[in-house]
Amino acid sequence: MIRVVLVDDQPLLRSGFRALLDLEDDIEVVGEAADGAAGLALIREHRPDIALIDVQMPVLDGIETTRRVAADPALDDVHVVILTNYGFDEYVYNALRAGAAGFLVKDIVPEDFLHAVRVAARGDALLAPSITRRLIARFVAEPPHRAVGTGLPELTNREREAVAFAARGLSNDQIADRMEISPVTAKTHINRAMAKLHARDRAQLVVYAYESGLVVPREG
């Protein structure tokens, strides 16, 4: 059963998302809140698999709520998915850096919304190649401040290679094809890299790859 906490200050949207989720046999909404502070309390109480969090809220916004979830070792298994009205913007970018696993635009069709919840529950990042490209564009505009290679000696050469491909938006199947290995082995390389670099999920691994200098952004 996938356990979900909903955090959004718009009651109509919150009830709409809940109605969709409540129809699914494998998903349970265990709590909902109208602001980040109340949402954080619910997340700490229930430790859900997924926290769907609006990016702009009163009391505590989605970015700070995400940051506090990511900083709490007791909430390591909680995957934060940011809800936004505007697509990929400054708020979403900062939320990904704060620890979000991905984001959803609120006008998403129901089938895609439910699929995304299940994807996030598996621990996969909600970062389509188009979104990864926009992340890359940000790092092109704002080069990393962290020293190149910081912390990277922990990775094997194959793990570095897999992370570099993931940072360019490739799926595990595509990484396997490029590296001439099986998809299972590709996933193993990614999972081991995440563990070594203390990345909560694939989204954090992608951000780290650019901030560490493992992958150098390229125009085009």
Entry keywords:
single chain, 220 residues, alpha/beta, Rossmann fold, Arc Repressor Mutant, subunit A, 2 domains, 5-stranded parallel β-sheet, 5 strands
Structure description:
- With about 220 residues, this protein is an alpha/beta fold.
- It folds into two domains: about 120 residues, Rossmann fold, CATH 3.40.50; about 80 residues, Orthogonal Bundle (Arc Repressor Mutant, subunit A), CATH 1.10.10.
- It is about 50% helix and about 15% strand.
- A five-stranded parallel beta sheet has the order 2-1-3-4-5, with helices on both faces.
Can you summarize this structure?
Helix 6 packs parallel to helix 10, helix 7 crosses helix 10 and helix 8 packs across helix 9. The radius of gyration is 17 Å and the shape is globular. It is α/β, with parallel strands linked by helices and about 220 residues long.
Per DSSP, the total helix count is 10
Secondary structure category: alpha/beta
Uncertain stretches: 146-150
Tell me, briefly, the overall form: globular
Q: Cα-atom Rg, whole angstroms?
A: 17 Å
- End-to-end Cα distance, whole Å, is 42 Å
Q: What is the domain tally?
A: 2
Look up the CATH topology of the largest domain: Rossmann fold
- Strand arrangement, largest sheet? 2-1-3-4-5
